[in-house]
Structure formats: structure tokens, C-alpha cells
Amino acid sequence: MQQIHFTINGLPCAAEEGMSILQAAKANGIEIPNLCNDESVRVYGACGLCAVEVTDDGRGKPVPKLLRACSAKVMEGYAVRLDTDRVNRSRKIALELLMSDHTGDCRGPCQLNCPAGTDCQGYVRRIAEGDFRGAVEIIKQKIPLPAAIGRVCPHPCEQNCRRGLVEQPISIAFLKAHAADRDLAGDTYCPEAAPRSGKRVAVVGGGPGGLTAAYYLYIKGHDVTVYDAAAKMGGMLRYGIPAYRLPKDLLDREIAEIEALGVTMKNNVRLGADITLEQLRADYDAVILATGAWSSMKMRCPGEELAGVTGGIQFLHDISSGEGDVPDLRGKKVAVCGGGNTAMDACRTAIRCGAETIYVIYRRTRGEMPAEDIEIEESIEEGVTYKFLTNPAEILGENGHVKQIRLQIMELGEPDASGRRAPQPVEGKFELLDVDLVIMAIGQRLDPAGLDGIELTKKGTIAADESTFRTNLDNVYAIGDATNRGASIAIEAIGEAGRCAAVVDSALRGQMKPYRAPYYSKKTVTAADLADREKQPRCQMPVRPAAERARDFAPVYLGFDDETVRKEAKRCLECGCHDYTDCKLIRYANMHVIQPERFGGVRHEAEKERRLVCIERDSGKCILCGLCVRICDEDAKQGILGLVGRGFPTAVKPEFQNPETVAVCMTCGKCAAACPTGALKWLK
Amino acid sequence: MSIRIAVGKGSCGIAAGAAKVSEALAPLLAGSGIPLGTVGCIGMCWLEPIVDLYDGDALKARLVQVKPEDAPRIADAAKNGDFSSISDLIITDDDAAFLQKQTRIALRNCGIIDPDSIESAKAAGAYTAISHILRDGVTPEDVIACIKISGLAGRGGAGFPTWFKWNAARQSPGEEKYLICNADEGDPGAFMDRAVIESDPHTLIEGMLIGAYAIGAQEAIVYVRAEYPLAIKRLERAIGEARAAGYIGKNIMDTDFSCEFRIKAGAGAFVCGEETALIESLQGQRGMPRLKPPFPAAAGYWYKPSNINNVETYANVAWILNNGGEAFAAMGTEDSKGTKVFALTGKIRRGGLVEIPMGMTLRDVIFDIGGGIRGGKAFKAVQMGGPSGGCIPAELLDTVIDYKKLAATGAIMGSGGMVVMDESTCMVSMAKFFLDFTAKESCGKCIHCRIGTKRLQEILTRIVEGRGREGDIELLEELCNAVRDGALCGLGQTAPNPVLSTLRYFRDEFEAHITEKRCPAHTCTDLLHYEIHADKCRGCTACARKCPVQAISGTVKQPHVIDQSKCIRCGQCIATCKFDAITVE
Predict the structure, then answer these.
(1) How many CA atoms lie within 13 A of B22 on its CB side?
(2) A380 within 8 A of A393, measured Cβ to Cβ
(3) How many structural domains compose chain B?
(4) For the segment B394-425, what is each residue's pLDDT rounded down to a tens digit?
(5) Which segments in chain B show pLDDT lower than 70?
(6) Domain boundary among A569, A601, A635
(7) Do B480 and B550 have their domain in common?
(8) Tell me: the pLDDT tens digits for A238-280?
(9) For residue B445, which residues of chain A lie inside 8 Å, CB to CB?
(10) Which pLDDT band holds residue A657 (cuts at 50, 70, 90)?
(11) CA distance, residue B280 to nearest chain A CA (Å)
(12) Domain match, B416 and B434 both
């Protein structure tokens, strides 16, 4: 065979004469996107994704039309380009058109709603199979602290779980915690780190965000040092979350795993006091600020300066840090102002410190409380008294110490911008409570000390770019509670940290790749669509009795056993596409910024059928590449499948739409294996 | 004088009542010695049924729009040779000029010979060219050279040089080769091929025999759409007669040349007019195009070297061999040689088949031959090339008919469909009509065509229904260009043409629909607004009684009003009003 010389994107290549451009590119290690091509069947040319431009036909002239690389033969002297505007436009619009007629969920709502994008369905499935290690491997692609997060996360995944449309959501967070506990108890999974790059990164702040950034950057090959002002790592997980929710030894073990991986950890180093940003920038190739938001917001009501008034975070921190003993609140009356999770942690901690009466002062009603419902429920069981529709008007003191709190009675008015009904004072109506301690848990903000030269937002947070996490200073990035919109839940910071690590890695390797949210195909599912599902109630987590647990800081939850965990995991509806990781369509779709919605229009009816005994066919995901039809005919020599109809309604059906034809299917599975999307699922 | 009568019985003539005229004449002529014959279609659709009175080969009188009740006086006139009693039926000079301005090569025998008689065809010269070739040792190379000199290009639409395809098929290695005729005429408004097969099947057979000889094919196949039953019937009969006469079969005219013929009836998919889809269909597969290359000349029917031309192309071949390539090339322009048949339809006064030399202008064809617009309205545009073509506006009427010149306007020569539109045609609706067609006829194989034409159709639909959005024009353009660039076959690649060319010449109409929610041609019903003007309304109640949905109310002798929420915009009120009191905007 004669060798032919040509170029692809300017790179010199050689191939045998008679090869298609697609084959020749492959022989030279270059992938040309295609959806309908397979070596085992004749060239078909349906998808057009392999279109290439030949800018020189070997005789100095361009080929005017785009060529389908699957069929066009490569010629001596060809200059083939895969990267021109015309090629990209053509491929992009083909993908947009395909996606405008694609009905399916790439990923389940659990993963799509996880701020870190954790593959919940993936690990839940591993857990159902009893493969706890496999589950942890999946979790740790996004969360390096799963035992902790499994316990503290308000789990947006569960709130959006479609099992909730049937009866109750899957207990995703507890499943994660269980898998992580099992992993910590045995031979703990530790991913392999890439060869060292020689680059050095400083992370300021050892909370969930900082530790996550450090973990992934280390795995990607960079040497990382985490600095933290506190005596121990963990940030809010350690100092903001009470031990009854997250035992400190568990956190210690997870952090120890990160240290064991190779991350250097330096405690008792405060930015601005012990080390300057200037110094870090000089010593490291990149600096990531993950300092968090540690100052409690003020109520701006008279009396806030009195002794016995403290911030929620401050209160929790003082107890957790062991700076001073656990305060003795026996016989004391405590008022916690606020309706979020910090307020819950504060009131339940106060109970455990022996307080006699605990009020939660909240200006709206229970329905509007941002705290998790189970927390409210359990706090009531433990003896907390709720004062809904009240707002502190004044804190009254005696000898400089809190004595009473005067509450303004509120009522709900019209819904505000957040959709919640805005509380309004009822003129002249007040209530007076005797209190010894007032805890303000109405929000946190950043303490900007040490952030010299860093640009802040109007809210006083660090201004960081949404897709690159860059601050105004070169090579300084920022993530988590300290940035932009301010404090949020741990998993938000972890998600940002993971994305930031990828950006910093790309920057350290010479070409920064900003984060771009991946494109996913999504479909709408209602309770009616799931009406035929068998009801399987959620497994109930065993809880210690309220009277007992309210007296100590031991865990509230007793944990599941393996059997229960597997049973619970098996409830998963597996909403996400079984073929996501192998799907060529979604991979190509994400090579471009596609906007299929601009074409809108009607879609094929999406129906799942199991007409062929061993294959489930989801017509909503079929792209009509014809591979199954052709492979069944040309390779398997069965000819069972055919294309039916013309134009847009064309569909793959058993040939001549005759159900009897399928009886001869020899269940070779070649069609399902060849399907470039998740339209065919092998059931055996 | 020996009079004979010929009734034009192409499908169009029969549809107009020619068979009944013929049935009425037959008993009246029985025993008179006056033969009553059948001819095909002369191409003057608006004058059907047509009865010709011949004296030998000389046409004595052409009677038009004949009714069965005219039969007695026609029979009498034929018998006594006095045509004065039928002078009212004789074609006017004005109408007769329709034929006189044409140059007929492909249609040379259409409407003149009896399609069911090989003798009639032979009397007109059929089979002289193939006889000469086989008897006088003309080589296949000589034949191809002659076609090359003629400059004959594919008349199916693409205009590819015929000699090149023949030569490529001839040069392709292999003993087994096929010659195929594409008679899957699918463009809305095109009927050239049907007329040729129905009127002069032997000319097609002879052209195909010459082609088969030239490329070395042993089998010739005519792929005719099943919607042409009369064409199939006449072609079947002609093949039988030609076989009996020794022109088809083994060792034709005692030479080494053997060629079998057969007909394949297509099931009616437009895409099967695309040559590779046609081949798939011939093989019994689903009609979906193949990727090219390889071209059919290298790997066609059963992946053997094959040549495909359309009916009109083959219909020119025998003439070229008889008269020489130079004679054919003497007609036309630098780029386009010979003649072209067009099917003139739409809002034209004289609709029918015309064959004219290349190089005439569109104005010549539409106004001189076609007589301009029917009903005194203004010419707006002509759609050339059907769903694959484009429109040409009034200001470009002097465009010369030539492959390159037409392509420069954004339209194409195409297979010869010429749909004439007047001022009452909405160009957006027109583009939508063609997209409805191509979207429905897409085979579903490639993404760009299957989904792209569907999306184009959806966008056009919302525009004509008054739901157009800002940015739709740009979206249409982007999508059109992508479909043109990315579709697999000619159907998809050319499907955007009607949109692109109407956008090019009538962009303001799109804008009026989208931004003003107004249809300038007053045809998009969703955008119409009927109104009764109180100053003109006499309260006669005629419109209120006519309105099918009781949308008009009012008391007698008082101005009436239309309830817009009930109005279905049928326009019957306007037609009914005697006082011009109702207007539409």
C-alpha cells in the first residue's frame, strides 16, 4: 500500500492510500467526532458531525464543500482542518438540532442539584450493590470529606429526588455517610496523585472549601500548603457544627486522610497577623483564599452591646474550640434570634449546656424558616420554644448584663423578592421575655483583616470571578463563604473548590481554562409519570430519644446497618442516563457552547419499550444514526430492525413493524453496544 | 383530401374530457373511413381537450376545448371537408403562437404521433439513430464524442454534462453495468417527463438504448413513479412493441449489443428522485440516499457501474445522433446548449409545456409564450426548480435562461418547473409551502435535513401565523446555511433555497409579518382583519346572511359590524358585498 502524506490542523500525517479521512485521522491518533460510523458496517453519512474542511486539495486549491470524513478519501497533499469556524458552526448546529429533539435526563435531579455535582445516582447504585468502596471512589471525585458532609449537608439532592414524587426521597446523605464510615473503618480509599508538577499552591483557610481545593490540587500534581488561623483544620465543620451532628474524631480522621495524601497543613497562622498575602504571593505560584465568613451579623437593635449578647457563630465556636469550658447554662433562659441552621445549632447546643428555657425568635412562621424541617422537629422534641412572628425590638439590661428582651409582634404581608411573605410589625404590640443570654444567629460576614489589596464587593465579600475564581490580584483566587454572595452551605464551598482546583491546575500548566457549566439534556417528570411505581417507604434513621440526647453532645443519629443501607439504595429510580459516561452525543455537545432551545419546536414522543426481549429502547434518546439497524442487518445478519416513516417522525422499529420479527432475535447485543447514546439499554 | 382525426389523450387531456370526446366521435365516424386516432400531449393544457384534423401529415385544423356535444358537427365537418361550422372551435392565432415560438426537440413528437404505435413513432423517425449506430459500426466512443460536442447536460436539475457521466460509466471496470432512467418526477408543478413518456415513449427507449450501448450496459431500467399509471401503461406497451421489432433483447439487429428493458414503479417518495436513493429503492431497500463518492458511475445499482439520466435528457439523444452534436450545440448560450422543456403553471394565462432554446429570457417565456398573468394582475415572481429552486422577482425577468445565469439569481434551472406568481401570492407562505413539502419528504437519514427542515418549517409557520419573533429572520438564515452545508443529499442541500431566495428578494414581506403582524399579499388568514365601513354599508344584510359563523351583526338599513373574535377570515363577506363596504387589511 502506498503511503499518503497530508496534514490535519497543520500537523503532518501519513496514512495508507484509499483510507477515508476519518480512518486516516484515527491512524494518526486524531479523533474526528462522529455518531453514525462503525467499522463493522458500511459508511452511512447520516450525522454529518465528521464534516471537515479541506483548505488545500494538494494542488493549492481549497475543496469548496465540507467533506464528510467518513466517506471522503484522504488524498496526497490534503490540508484537512477540523478547527475552522465553518466546521465548528456546522457541527454545533447539528448538535443543537439533535438536542432540540432529545428527550432524556443525562443526569438525575440529585446530581444536577448538588452544588458539587456529585454523582449521587452512581454511588447510590454502588451502595445498593454492596460496593461501598466503589461508592466512595465516586463520592471522592467531588467530596473529600464525605463522612462529614453526609452528616451536615442539608442535601439539596434529596429535596429534588424524584422518589419524592412517589413517596419520600432516597436517604442520599445518610447513604453517603455510611459508605464513608465503612471506608474510614477499613483500608481507606486514597486516589492516586499525578506526578509532581513542581508548582506550589497556598490555600488560606482549612475549612471544607480550602481542604477540598488542596485535596484536588494535590491529586493534580501540585504541592499544596493549607494555612489556618485556628488550632485545628476543619473550619466551620469543626467550629460551627456541634459535635452531636458531626463527631470531631470523625472529622479528624477525614482531615488526616488529606494530610496523609501529601497536603501540608499549618495551623495557628493568621493571615495579616502571622503571614501576609504579599508574602504568600511571593512564595507560591498560586494562592487560594478560602477564609470563610466568621463574623456574626448584628441585629442593629438597642442593647446589643450588653454582656450576655453573643453571635451564633461565636457561641458555637467558643464551645467547639474548647476555648473556655462548655458554658454552664443550667437554670438559664436563652433567646436565639434567627431561623436558619446556625440558629438550630445554637439552640440545640444551648439545651445541651443545660439551659432551662430556650426561645427561638423568628420574625416569620415555621413554613418560611430556612432551617431544615427535621432540625426544627428535633429541637422541639428537645424542648425548644418557638416564638414565631416576633422580632427583637430592644435588649434590656441590668448592670450591663442582659435581663430582658422586648419582642415586636409581626404579621405576614405580601410576598417579597424571595417569594416569602414579608413580615411587618403590628403596631404597638410587643412581648417581653426574661432572658440571660441572647444569641444572634441571623447571618455571617467576612472579616476582611489581612486581605490587603483585595477588591471587595458591595456586600463586603471578596470579589471573585464566577468562572475563573480570580480576584483582582494576579494568581490569587477566592472561593467559599468569603466570596461574592457570602455564606452558604458547606457543599457549595466544596463545589466551588473543586471547580477552582481545575481552573488553577490549568493556569499552572500554562493555559487557564475557565469553568463552564456542562450542558445536560433534561426532561420534565411529574408524579403522574411515576404513578405506576411501587411504593417503598424511606428507611427511618434510628434516633436517640430526645430526653437522652438533649443532655450530651453524642450523635443524635445511631446510623444504619449495611442491610438497611442497601435496601434504601435500591429505592433509587435511576433517573440519570445509564449511558452518560459513554455517550458520544453529550461528549460532543459539550465540545461546543450549544443552545438547542433557540430551535425549540416539537420533539419525538419519548417512550420506553421492551419489544426486543433483552433490550430496552428509549425513543426519546434515539438520534436515528441507524447503527442498530445496520449492525443487525450487516453484521449480525438478522435484519430485525428497520426505519419506519419519513422525515421528522422517522423511527426505529422492528422491520415492517411486525412484532413477530423480533422472535428471531438472537440476543447478540451488538445493537446496544453500538448505540452512541443511551437509547438502547442491554437488560441481560 | 383524406382526413384523419387525432384526439390528444395525455393524462391532462383525459382529465379535461378527451376520452369522452373520443367516445362521442367514434360511432359518428364508424364506416366513414375517417380514422380516429390518439395522440399524446401537445402541451397546451389550458385548451384541452384538443382534437386535431389532419390531411395526411398536414394539420388542417386544431380544435380546442372540445366538448362531447361538439362531436356531431366535428364528424360532419371531417366528412364534408367544410370547417366553417366548427370555426368557433378552431384555435385562435394568438393561442397557436404558443407553439410557434417554441423549438421542440425532446417534445418533437409529442401530441403528433400515436404513443401506442411503434409504426407511428417510426414514421416520425424513431429508431433511425440506433439503427445507424449498430448498422454502420458507430463505436460507443463515437457516441460519447457526439454527445460531448452537443453539450447536452442533465435535464433533471443538476445540469451535469451527460457525456462525462456516460464516459465515467464506460471507463469503470466491470462487465455488468446498468443504465437507469429517472422518471420519478416529483417537483410540485412539473410534468415534463410524464408528457414525454405518455406521448412519445419510443423516443425515450431509443435514447436509453443509445446510452446503454455507449456505456456498455446490458440492462436498462426505467424508474417511474406509480402515480403515473398511464405513462407506465404506454411505456410497457412500447417496450413490448420495441422488443417485438427487435430493438430490445439479445443481439439487437444481429449485433453483439444486447439490452433488456424493464420498468420499476416507485412508491412515491420525493427523495427517490435523488439518484442514489433511487438506486436503493431499485434494490428493494428503503429510499435513502447514499454518500457520494462513490458515484453511481463507479458503484451504482448493486454497486455496479451505472448511469442515471432523466427522461428529458434521454429524449434529446436520438435527435443529437441524427442531426449531429453541432446542430444541438448551435442552439443556446455559451454555457448551456440545446433546448429545455418547462412546465408553466401557476397564475399564468397559458399554462402548459414549452420547449425553448436556451438563451431566451424569462420574459419571453412567461409573457410572449405564456401570455402573462391571468386575470389582469401584476406579475410578482416565478419559482424555478420547485422545492430545490428559488424565486426570481419581476425586476429580473430579463434574466437569460442558462444554467449559470439562473444560478446567479439564487434560483436554479431545475427539472423545468416554472410556477408563476402574481401580486396575491404571499412569498412567506410560498416558502413555507415548499418547506412543508421538503420536511415531509425528507427521508429522515441526516440530521440537517430531518430536523433542520422541520425547524425551518416551524419557524416559517409561526411567522405566517403571526407568532414571528424578532431574530427569526437571522435564525432562518443561519439554519438555511447550515442545512445547505451539512445535508447529505441534494434534497436537503437545496431545501433551504426557497427560503433563502425569498429572503433575498422579499425580505420586507418577512419583516412585515414579524414586526407588523401584517401580510402584504393579504393571504395569511391569521394576519387578516376584515372591517365594514359604516359610511359605505347600506345595511342590506347580505354579508350577515352569507357569513358561515354568524360573525356579522346589525339591523336592516343600519351599518353592520364584524365580531373579530368570531371571524374566521374566509373572505365571503367581501365577495358578497355589492357596495365595496368591506375591506381587508
Answers:
(1) 23
(2) no
(3) 5
(4) 999 999 999 999 999 999 998 999 999 999 99
(5) 1
(6) A569
(7) no
(8) 999 999 999 999 999 999 999 999 999 999 999 999 999 999 9
(9) 44-46, 624, 626
(10) low
(11) 13
(12) no
The count of residues in chain B is 585
Do both A638 and A563 map to the same domain?
no
Alpha carbon dihedral A254, A257, A263, A266, in 10-degree steps, equals 50
pLDDT tens-digit map of A390-427: 999 999 888 888 899 999 999 988 888 777 788 899 99
Q: Are strands B339-346 and A437-440 parallel, antiparallel or unpaired?
A: unpaired
Q: Is the pLDDT of residue A324 over 60?
A: no
Interface of A with B (CB under 8 A): 43-48, 51, 65-66, 68, 70-73, 86, 89-90, 93-94, 97-98, 100-101, 598-602, 623-624, 626, 642-643, 645-650
The kind and range of the H/E element at A412 are strand A401-415
> Sign (positive/negative) of CA torsion A675, A676, A678, A679?
negative
The whole-angstrom separation of Cα B299 and Cα B307 is: 10
CATH of the domain at B561: 3.30.70.20
Considering the domain architecture, whether residues A357 and A433 belong to the same structural domain is answered as yes
Question: Is the residue at B178 inside a domain?
Answer: yes
For residue B205, is it within any domain?
Answer: yes
C-alpha cell at A225: 500548603
A624:B450 CB<8 A: yes
Alpha helices in B40-186 (DSSP H): 71-80, 93-100, 118-123, 128-135, 140-150, 162-171
Task: With H, G, I as helix, E, B as strand and everything else as coil, classify residue B339.
Answer: strand
Percent of residues, chain B, with pLDDT higher than 90: 91
CA distances from A660 to A617, A640, A656, A670 (A): 17, 10, 10, 20
Where residue A662 sits, what CATH number does that domain have?
A: 3.30.70.20
**CB neighbours (10 Å) of residue A202?**
25
B452 contact A CB<8A: yes
User: CATH no. for residue A338?
Assistant: 3.50.50.60
Q: Are strands A200-204 and A286-289 parallel, antiparallel or unpaired?
A: parallel
Q: Which residue range is the domain that position B382 belongs to? A: 339-422
Q: What is the DSSP letter of A514?
A: -
Cα nearest neighbour of B469 on chain A = A598
Q: Are residues A440 and A536 in the same domain?
A: no
The amino acid at residue B101 is K
Say whether both A664 and A639 belong to one domain.
yes
User: Does the residue B334 lie in any domain?
Assistant: no
Assess whether A77 and A113 both reside in one domain: no
Q: Name the phi and psi angles at A206, rounded to 5.
A: -105, 35
Omega prior to A537 cis, within 30 of 0: no
CA-to-CA separations, A597 to A102, A113, B156, B447, in angstroms, rounded: 11, 21, 38, 16
| Residue at which a domain ends, from B374, B394, B422 | B422
Ramachandran assignment for A346, one of left (phi > 0), alpha (psi -120 to 50 degrees), beta (any other): alpha
Segment A127-154 shows an average pLDDT of: 95
Three-state secondary structure string covering B150-186: HCCECCCCCCCEHHHHHHHHHHCCCCCCEEEEEECCC
Mutation target to probe the B interface, by most B beta carbons within 10 A, among A71, A602, A648 is A648
Is B266 found in the same domain as B124? yes
CA-wise closest residue to B86 among B112, B107, B60, B110:
B60
Query: What residue numbers bound the domain in which A565 lies?
Result: 109-190+522-548+558-569
Residue A356 sits in the same domain as residue A305: yes
CA distance B109 to B112: 5
Residue A466 in any domain: the answer is no
Can you tell me the distance from the alpha carbon of B165 to that of B181, in angstroms, rounded to the nearest whole number? 13
pLDDT computed for residue A377 by the predictor: 93
Q: Are residues B81 and B228 in the same domain?
A: no
Q: How far apart are CA B340 and CA A445, in angstroms?
A: 82
